[in-house]
Amino acid sequence: MVESYIYAAARTPFGRFGGALASIRPDDLAAAALTGVLDKMPAMDRTEIGGVYWGNANGAGEENRNVGRMALLLAGLPTSIPATTINRLCGSSLDAAMFASRTVECGEAEVIVAGGVESMTRAPWVLPKAHRAFPAGDMTAVSTTLGWRLINSRMPKEWTVSLGECNEQLADRCGVSRKRQDEFAATSHNQAEKAWAEGYYNDLVVEVDGVNLRADEGVRPGSTADDLANLKPVFRPSGSITAGNASPLSDGAAAVVIGSEKAAKILGGDPLVRIAGRGAHALDPQMFGFAPVEAANTALTRAGITWAEVEAIELNEAFAAQSLACIDAWKVDPAMVNAWGGAIAIGHPLGASGARILGTLAHRMRRDNQRWGVAAICIGVGQALAVVVENTSSGSEK
Q1: In the chain, what are the domain boundaries?
Q2: Is 363 helix (H, G, I), strand (E, B) or coil?
Q3: How would you classify the pairing of strands 5-11 and 250-259?
Q4: Which of 166, 281, 326, 348 is catalytic?
Q5: Which helix (DSSP H) or strand (DSSP E) does residue 119 occupy?
Q6: What burial class does residue 170 get, using C-beta atoms within 10 Å of its C-beta: 0-12 exposed, 13-18 middle, 19+ buried?
Q7: Active-site residue 348, yes or no?
Q8: How far, in Å, are 58, 160, 311 from residue 149 at the CA level?
């Protein structure tokens, strides 16, 4: 089997729920990220693209008809390029990248574009169909923005509690205090602010036509743990999770170009990093926030390395509680995690977040000359994914 590499990454700015990107359809957001990443390789013949794999967690609204295919058509790519849309909730676009890498490694394509999109603002309300015609009672519209909806009554109730309650349970189980969560969240904002100020995102983030938004809308400069400590718990009266130490509802899209070693000639440039290992893990649905621990351990084993060799980690910050639980379990230096800020500050548009952390990881490692990195993401209903990448130009090739 051949090896697979990440050649380019791009994403839109991430917008707040109801914010600057609220008027942009998810298929148009996806097209913006797709166009942005391909514009990094102007010499490439677009007909050489072997396919588009695209992540999306909702699929109930304007993105419902295979948004990956819609995106490439809206981006003006050749109609001969096939596309599929993948749903693994928060891990959808990281799953898309993993599928793309396998396709390349199996020799079925030299170049694949992977990514994902979510407009949580534009996620529709849905009405379930009645069991029989003309019911006499009222029907309730259900929001598809986030979390469980239209729950099957056969599901155990402990599995279907809110995402926040899941992480309250995890914080209790792992002994993660409110103070640590607020400190972690403040660091996320301050790291993101610093990364933007120092230009780290200049080569990663592309503008969306018709929108005056250049940077991530949710970053709060100068955040402090003391400020966040004033916020009230959301899920339990005496709980630890607040709107300040959890990721916000967001809109955005992200993409990566994945190819073989031969693809360098097609794309007209050298790769950023090699995809060295992949991992998935599943456990009880209410413990989903802890699932990245074993997903990353599996990916490291498959890459043939250990945590001692890792220099950079991108861990999606669904909640500060679960992020800290994972960091504690890995026994890694927190300074190597999300050095350019994380989802608590940047935002978490579900279907886009996996491609965001993977692209950010590749750029971080190249900028800082780091050899080994891990991208990991927790997924609702008790799953997680992780990818290990190697910067083969770091001066210490495997």
Answers
A1: 5-123+247-390
A2: helix
A3: antiparallel
A4: 348
A5: strand 111-119
A6: buried
A7: yes
A8: 11, 9, 39
174 is catalytic: no
Task: Identify whether the C-beta of residue 249 lies closer than 8 Å to the C-beta of residue 146.
Answer: yes
Fold designation for 5-123+247-390: Peroxisomal Thiolase; Chain A, domain 1 (3.40.47)
Supply the angle between the helices 92-105 and 353-368 in degrees, to the nearest 10.
70
- Rounded to two decimals, the pTM is 0.96
Q: Which mean pLDDT values do the consecutive 10-residue runs of the chain (398 residues) have?
A: 96 98 98 98 95 97 97 98 98 98 98 98 93 86 93 96 97 98 98 98 96 96 97 96 98 98 96 98 98 98 98 98 98 98 98 98 98 98 98 69
Amino acid making up residue 212: N
Catalytic, out of 90, 166, 281, 363: 90
- DSSP three-state, residue 23: coil
For residues 343, 346, 347, 353, the Cα torsion angle rounded to the nearest 10 degrees is -60
Q: Catalytic annotation on 166?
A: no
Which of 166, 189, 281, 378 is catalytic? The answer is: 378
